[in-house]
Design brief:
The complex is a heterodimer of chains A (307) and B (334).
Chain A lengths: L1 H6 L17 H29 L3 H7 L12 H7 L3 H30 L8 H9 L8 H10 L7 H4 L6 H13 L2 H9 L4 H12 L1 H16 L3 H6 L8 H9 L20 H23 L2 H11 L1
Helix pairs in contact in A: 2-15, 4-15, 5-9, 5-12, 5-14, 9-12, 9-16, 10-11, 12-15, 12-16, 14-15
Chain B lengths: L2 H13 L13 H32 L5 E2 L8 H7 L1 E2 L3 H7 L2 H20 L2 H11 L4 H12 L6 H12 L4 H8 L14 H26 L3 H9 L4 H26 L6 H11 L1 H4 L2 H7 L7 H28 L10
Antiparallel strand pairs in B: 1-2
Helix pairs in contact in B: 4-16, 6-10, 7-10, 10-12, 12-16, 15-16
Classes of the chains: A mainly alpha (307), B mainly alpha (334).
Chain lengths: 307, 334
């Protein structure tokens, strides 16, 4: 939706229909305040955190904690972080998990979605029910923990990658999109002698770029954000992904009862370093998201609602 | 996969359909297998992942009926075989446990609170966004308000700590103004409000997507006809817009009810230390703390199974009600 709006040439603003009353100033004002506050509530914290992470010790002391108005740029917090240590290692591990996980999950999902998009194939109904049932019944925590540890995945990145390697929601989205592709196209490929693998890679996938991008973003974000699975399955400090490190930097120090989230950091991190860790955790999301955001409506809604 | 190979196979299907005469109209298994083996091969990896990480744990729920002891065997399976069966003993313990009922009440209170104070907000926001004429402005606002949905709970809570916590911006400003600073993040009395505000901040924008889609499918002629009949903007909102959104609202309500006992695990575990157990213990954190954190697996599994069973009943019941009200619900026939 947004995409088409953004591409509209200037000067073709949609007009209010003739029968609609002109807006009251009060109503417009209320709308402006509401939406303005909402946008600010997202952008303002991002701004404060970014500015604080780039401020010098003196500026932060002067401001009394967090800096709203920047005074010069000081990148020493980032220099400290990238000199090595818990955060650098965690960033590497999170990157590894995200890259491997996204590729794997996307492959598995696309294959399964195509395999399940052809009614009348062998075992179609049973297999579809098999894939959709986990949508209603979540894997219970305790047995899942026992299964993953029983497979010897504890303290490896595979404990973070494999269990969420197929999400039923994403499967439904991709499958819905595949089914929306005109069946004449797929049938004619078959008549021309293309195998199913060939039809998928050469006919279906090129048409599905938007939905693949969106689902890929979903997987990438969920792998980047993994925290609880790491709490369950990763005990070794040097295997922590970035969210666990962020938690120990920002949240564990909040209350006196520290729930065993020691990271081996001897010095308490300064305000600038804390905020720099937040910035580094946010950056990949903020960097990738705007490019894919314009496909959301096209990708997700067509896939999910039609399916 | 060369194409010639497949052509030959497709051709041979037509000439010699499997050999044996089919009993029904359906093609014999061997033919269908030969025709569909590629589809089956594509499904296989997802099948295996779900089998191991969804179905195996679901079956593993039976340890709720055991006095599961992880140390009697060298691996969980062996421990499972060797552990004692105790029937409903874990459930009896669970239902006699005041801490469990406390978590249960907290969960229901938070769900109810969020249903009233969170659920209508995306609808409202979608209607406001839809009414914006400038598409650029609308696109910009949508881009910004969707963003927090992609932040992890660790990040969201970190943001709130930075803004509202004891060393946060609010407390800092209040100290400078000579006031006694609040620490919103550690106050158990306002915790329910805090988690709702966090949830709203994270997901209100994202929640509008589906309503915006529904709004864009409402027939403009209805509005025009209503306006011609003298309906003002509020009457049009009430008689056209809201009925147009009704199926989506019902669908999302059902899904929300099905999740009534899952209020979002990470949010609560992350803030449990700061506000204390009294306010923040929900069923999910209860399961975690009484099983994995303490090693009492059977007990935690029983609590988890109870939660899942109630959730499933709720979703089926809600769907039934939706059918009776003449809505489609999440599944209609298939």
């Amino acid at each position: 939706m947004t995409a088409t709006f953004l591409r509209k040439p200037p000067g073709t603003r949609p007009r209010r229909p003739a029968w609609e009353e002109p807006p009251s100033p009060l109503g417009q004002g209320a709308k402006a305040v509401l939406l303005g506050l909402l946008v600010l509530s997202v952008l303002f914290p991002l701004w404060v955190i970014l500015v604080t992470s780039l401020s010098s010790r003196e500026t932060i002391a002067e401001a009394g904690g967090l800096v709203v108005i920047p005074k010069g740029i000081d990148t020493s917090a980032y220099a400290t972080i990238f000199a090595g240590g818990a955060v650098t290692r965690a960033l590497w591990i999170s990157t590894l998990v995200t890259v491997i996980g996204t590729i794997l999950a996307l492959t598995i999902t696309v294959l399964a979605a195509y395999g399940l998009s052809r009614p009348g194939s062998l075992g179609y109904r049973w297999l579809l029910a098999y894939f959709l049932l986990p949508f209603l019944i979540y894997p219970p925590l305790v047995p899942k923990y026992l299964v993953v540890t029983g497979l010897g995945l504890k303290d490896t990145i595979w404990a973070l990658i494999l269990p969420p390697a197929i999400s039923v929601f994403n499967l439904v989205v991709v499958r819905g999109f595949f089914q929306g592709i005109p069946s004449e196209l797929v049938d004619s490929a078959r008549i021309d002698g293309a195998s199913d693998f060939r039809t998928l890679t050469q006919i279906v996938l090129p048409l599905a770029r938007a939905v693949i991008a969106v689902v890929g973003l979903f997987y990438a974000v969920s792998y980047w954000n993994v925290w609880f699975d790491a709490l369950l399955f990763i005990d070794r400090n040097d295997m922590y992904p970035i969210q666990r490190v962020l938690q120990s930097y920002l949240l564990a120090g909040q209350a006196p009862t520290n729930s065993g989230a020691a990271t081996g950091v001897t010095m308490p991190p300064t305000e600038a370093i804390k905020m720099a860790v937040v910035v580094l955790t946010v950056t990949p999301i903020v960097a990738v998201y705007p490019f894919i955001q314009r496909h959301f409506v096209k990708g997700v809604l067509i896939g999910a609602i039609k399916g | 996969m060369s194409s010639t190979e497949t052509t030959v196979r497709a051709g041979s299907d037509q000439i010699r359909p499997g050999g044996a005469t089919p009993r029904r109209r359906r093609l014999p298994l061997r033919t269908r297998l030969r025709r569909d083996w590629q589809l089956l091969a594509m499904i296989a990896p997802g099948f295996v992942i779900l089998l191991i990480f969804s179905y195996l744990p679901i079956l593993g729920n039976v340890i709720a009926f055991q006095d599961y002891n992880p140390y009697v065997g060298s691996n969980p399976l062996e421990a499972f075989v060797k552990s004692n069966w105790i029937g409903f003993g874990q459930f009896q313990l669970l239902f006699a446990d005041p801490a469990f009922w406390h978590a249960f009440r907290n969960t229901l209170a938070i769900t109810a609170f969020q249903l009233v104070f969170f659920f209508p907000l995306p609808i409202l926001l979608a209607i406001v966004l839809h009414s914006l004429l400038s598409s650029r402005l609308r696109g910009f606002i949508q881009t910004v308000v969707y963003l927090p949905h992609f932040f992890s709970w660790v990040l969201v809570v970190s943001f709130f700590v930075a803004m509202l916590g004891g060393a946060g911006l609010l407390a800092q400003t209040m100290r400078e103004a000579g006031m006694e600073p609040w620490n919103v993040m550690t106050n158990p009395d306002t915790f329910i409000l805090l988690v709702t505000v966090e949830a709203v901040w994270k997901d209100v924008g994202w929640g509008t997507i589906v309503f915006l889609a529904a709004l864009s499918t409402i027939d403009q002629n209805l509005y025009e006809a209503a306006a011609a009949d003298g309906a003002g903007r509020w009457r049009r909102l009430w008689h056209i817009t809201l009925p147009g959104l009704r199926p989506v609202i019902v669908l999302l309500l059902i899904l929300r009810l099905g999740d009534a006992l899952s209020v979002g695990f990470e949010q609560f575990l992350l803030q449990r230390d700061a506000v204390g157990r009294q306010a923040s213990e929900v069923l999910d954190t209860f399961v975690y703390h009484f099983s994995i954190a303490t090693g009492n697996y059977g007990y935690g599994a029983a609590a988890g199974l109870f939660k899942a069973a109630v959730g499933l009943c709720l979703i089926l019941a809600a769907n039934k009600v939706a059918h009776m009200l003449g809505e489609r619900g999440i599944y209609s026939r298939s």
